[in-house]
Specification:
five-stranded mixed β-sheet, 9% helix, globular, Glyas_Fos-R_dOase_dom, 1 helix, mainly beta, two-stranded antiparallel sheet, Glyas_Bleomycin-R_OHBP_Dase, 2,3-Dihydroxybiphenyl 1,2-Dioxygenase, domain 1, VOC_core
């Protein structure tokens, strides 16, 4: 990831925009391809969410791993998964009180 912006809507949802530099693009679409390739959902317990997802016939594409951004700095986890109808999703879980935003950050990630 070479650039990230968060668009915040008061006390509601946020949209996170990422610019990836990746020369290994191909089919099927991956999370860093151009365009909308996946949606991310915040979950309280990523292990339980992963179990529920697979019990509903979803496929885990990765195991939970530490969040990678400068703001997250390893606080929390994420994983990629695919729905039974083929849509790529991301599940993520983190403690919003432990995120390390820059002092001049104009927007912060909304957490339900």
């Amino acid at each position: 990831m070479i650039h990230m912006r968060i668009l915040s809507f008061d006390h509601s949802a946020s949209i996170e925009l990422f610019n990836y530099q990746n020369t290994e693009q191909g089919q099927p679409a991956i999370a860093s391809d151009l365009g909308v390739q996946h949606f991310a959902f915040y979950v309280d317990d990523i292990q339980q969410a992963a179990q529920n997802f697979t019990e509903a016939d979803g496929e885990l594409l990765t195991e939970p791993q530490g969040l990678l951004g400068d703001v997250e700095n390893g606080v929390g986890d994420f994983l990629y998964c695919r729905t039974p109808w083929g849509m790529l999703l991301e599940l993520l879980s983190y403690d919003p009180n432990k995120l390390d935003y820059p002092e001049d950050a104009e927007a912060k990630r909304y957490t339900p």
